[in-house]
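Why predict the complex rather than its parts? Because the way molecules touch one another can change local conformation, and only a joint prediction can capture that. The input here totals 591 residues.
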Amino acid sequence: MSVDAAAWEALRLSLWVACWATVLAMPLALWVAWLLARRDFWGKSALNALVHLPLVLPPVVTGYLLLIAFGRTGPAGQLLESLGLTLAFHWTGAVLAAIVMGFPLMVRAMRLAIEAVDPKLEQAAATLGAPRYAIFAHVTLPLILPGILAGSVMGFAKAMGEFGATITFVANIPGQTQTLPSAIWSALQIPGGEGQAVAMVIMACVVALGAVVLSEALARRVAARIAGT
Amino acid sequence: MTLDLHIRHRFAGFSLDVACRAGPGITALFGRSGAGKSTVINAVAGLLRPDAGHVDVGGVRLFDAQTGLFVPPAARRLGVVFQDARLFPHMDARANLMFGARFRPADATGAGFDDVVSLLGLSDLLHRAPATLSGGEKQRVALGRALLSHPRMLLMDEPLASLDGPRKQEILPYLERLRDGPLKLPILYVSHAVDEVARLADTLVLLQDGQVRAQGPLYDVMADPAAVPLLGVREAGAVIEAEITAHAEDGLSTLRIDAGVLELPGVQAAVGARVRLRVLAQDVILSRDRPEGLSSVNVLPVVIDSVHPGDGPGAAIGLRAGRDRLLARVTARAVREMALVPGMSCYAILKATTVAPGSIGR
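Output of the joint prediction:
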């Protein structure tokens, strides 16, 4: 069985989109997780609900809302367009869809990790004269690193597998917005396309397994360093 | 004045109003759990912002409710040793110690890394992770970390409370070395153990229900009959200084105090050293006449200073033995039958006496 170029292109695009989505979402997710775990402010439950919305909404609905807001005629879309950034029917739109869909998973994992850090350790660091950024960099961050890693792998896996919101928002243009799941879906629509679909299913499985194995190995190393053994 | 504070703070169901002043040396804040000790130490450290009052350390104002001044903990330069050590779990002992040194101001003075390691006996622990250290070892590292931040004062929140007897004995000599050594670092020491306080403190502040009930030099407060209910009837007792004059072959040592001479077993320090004696009030017997034919040889002529009836059948008697003060606990009936009144001369028989194992070095 030969795998045709379109399948490899879909894999390349999916990896590209997922990497961008993970890298861009990570700092924002960490910040939001920090706010939700450590700060009390007006509108906190609203923010929490907003972050989790994509988890409970049908992905098609999320995709449609993205299209309304970030499409060519949408307010946010026009603003970004004037800055030279096109999202609609473009791979950058697939990145945005992946970020939005993976965000709740990332925030959740990171928030749990932050909540597990004893604030008393940070207090101890403060009494030793450490400024806030140093407390975060040298005490909090190393302790939540496994959570950041776990959240990022979840976000990456979600980005690799995201289908409904992506196809609604940026359609299914080969080489542009056709990610692996969209390509598998397209292949299954064509008589005799099942061979290609199976090849891409295997690709998806290999990437997913690889991500899990890699994150486990990294988490073990971080945990070992934290335990100091 | 090393420490000058007045703190008022309300929690749900508890209000605290504490004013105290202390000079150099170790100031012990003593009270049962819930008396408000940790609240005071957190307010001094800047980990809690009181509703009202002020906090001065070494003449520097750190908190003033009236002007809204609140120096954040990182800028207070106070070393805090917490009951639970709070070592950073992802750093080994050396990295924990270095973290203390990392953020100190360039012009701060204090012990160097090697001095702290040798003072606290840490050289074998440097590459160990906190998870592999015993409770006593963790506290030593935490103390070293605080010292290396070159603090202006050390705050210790029940540093020995989570340790068992032998582990406590492991730490106490280090604290005595800090008190008597070249660092001369003032220490605010929170404790609910009378034996620690009697051994370490120069100034004693007794807290109860968020209020200061007594404060002053350790020897005065410990010998104050009114302090008996605060310290507990079994724990109350005067602390006096004695000089070791001889060690006899039968294991008894001779110690000179102002009012006379005592012979005690189990004294570890060298001849010429000055030690603290803790004389429990319940181990002092009073006699109107000089007793003859007693098994105890530790009899001192004393003058009754004050008679303080307790709530129960007991009474606390404040005594003067030369320049020293002692405390005796007798029954209220004995007070009546012996007609014990202030100004009366009598004899105190010391049944048992605890000696701090180390020399007090002054």
